[in-house]
C-alpha cells in the first residue's frame, strides 16, 4: 500500500476531528491526556521522525531537541498537517533506503513513514472515542497496522512479567472483512519472544473481528471481551497477551 498517501490521509482525518473539538476534551484511552496533548504528541512525533531521518541518526534523538515541537495557538491543525508532510519530504530527500535509527534497531528511513502512519491511525481512534463518534478505517490499512504492531513486538525482549504467550501456544487473529488479503495472523512464542506469520491455523485462542476492531483490540483501545470480538478458546491467554503488550 502507499504509506505516504495514507499518512497524509490519516493526518488529515485526525485534523478534521480536532478542528472543531474542544481541545480540553479528555481522552479516555490515553489516561491523563486531553485532545490538545494528543495533537501535540502526534505532530511532535512526526517532526521527531523527520529529524532522525534528516540527520541520518544512528542513536536515539532527544525529542526535546525537535524544532517547532509545539503547535502554534492560532493554527494547531495546520501545524499537525505540516508535521506529516515534513517527514515525507525528509525521507524523499535522504532516500527511503538510507539506514537510520529506530527503536527496533537500524531500519531504512521509509520505516518511519509506516510507523507514523499507524501512530496517526490509532490516535485518530483515540480522538473518535473521546468525541463519541464512529472510528472508520479501511480494512487494508487496519490489517497493515496489525502486522506492523506484531513486527514491533517481535523486536522486543521477553517482558519482565513473563512471555507474551506461553511457549507452544498460538494466538490466531482472523479479520472477517470480505476480500481482505493477508487478514489472518498466527502468533506464537519462541523462547518467550514473539514470532508471527500470515496464515490460518488452530491455536490456543482465536480472536475474530473486523480488521478495524482487531487493530483497536491489539492496541488496547477496546476491551479484550468487547462484543465486537469473537474470542474462541483460551480467553485467559488473550487477556495475558494484551496485558504484556503495551506500546
From TrEMBL:
Residues 7-128 form the Mycothiol-dependent maleylpyruvate isomerase metal-binding domain. InterPro entries: DinB/YfiT-like, Maleyloyr_isom, MDMPI_C-term_domain, MDMPI_metal-binding. Pfam families: MDMPI_C, MDMPI_N. Residues 140-239 form the MDMPI C-terminal domain. Transmembrane segments: none annotated. One of its GO terms (molecular function) is isomerase activity. It comes from the Bacteria. Keywords: Isomerase. NCBIfam families: maleylpyruvate isomerase family mycothiol-dependent enzyme. This is Maleylpyruvate isomerase family mycothiol-dependent enzyme. It comes from Pseudonocardia adelaidensis. The lineage of its organism: Bacteria, Bacillati, Actinomycetota, Actinomycetes, Pseudonocardiales.
Amino acid at each position: 500500500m502507499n504509506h505516504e498517501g495514507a499518512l497524509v490521509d490519516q493526518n488529515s482525518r485526525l485534523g478534521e476531528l480536532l478542528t472543531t473539538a474542544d481541545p480540553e476534551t479528555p481522552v479516555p484511552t490515553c489516561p491523563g491526556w486531553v485532545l490538545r496533548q494528543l495533537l501535540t504528541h502526534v505532530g511532535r512525533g512526526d517532526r521527531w521522525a523527520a529529524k532522525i531521518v534528516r540527520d541520518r541518526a544512528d542513536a536515539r534523538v532527544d525529542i526535546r531537541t525537535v524544532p517547532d515541537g509545539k503547535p502554534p495557538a492560532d493554527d494547531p491543525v495546520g501545524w499537525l498537517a505540516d508535521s506529516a508532510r515534513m517527514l515525507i519530504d525528509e525521507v524523499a530527500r535522504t532516500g527511503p533506503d538510507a539506514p537510520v535509527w529506530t527503536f527496533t534497531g537500524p531500519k531504512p528511513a521509509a520505516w518511519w513513514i509506516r510507523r507514523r502512519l499507524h501512530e496517526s491511525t490509532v490516535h485518530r481512534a483515540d480522538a473518535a472515542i473521546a468525541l463519541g463518534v464512529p472510528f472508520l478505517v479501511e480494512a487494508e490499512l487496519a490489517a497493515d497496522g496489525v502486522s506492523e504492531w506484531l513486527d514491533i513486538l517481535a523486536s522486543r525482549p521477553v517482558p519482565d512479567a513473563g512471555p507474551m504467550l506461553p511457549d507452544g501456544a498460538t494466538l490466531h487473529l482472523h479479520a472477517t472483512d470480505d476480500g481482505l488479503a493477508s487478514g489472518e495472523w498466527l502468533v506464537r512464542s519462541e523462547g518467550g519472544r514473539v514470532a508471527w506469520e500470515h496464515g490460518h491455523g488452530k491455536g490456543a485462542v482465536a480472536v475474530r473481528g473486523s480488521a478495524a476492531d482487531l487493530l483497536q483490540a491489539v492496541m488496547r483501545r477496546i476491551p479484550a471481551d468487547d462484543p465486537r470480538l469473537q474470542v474462541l478458546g483460551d480467553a485467559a491467554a488473550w487477556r495475558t497477551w494484551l496485558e504484556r503488550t503495551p506500546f
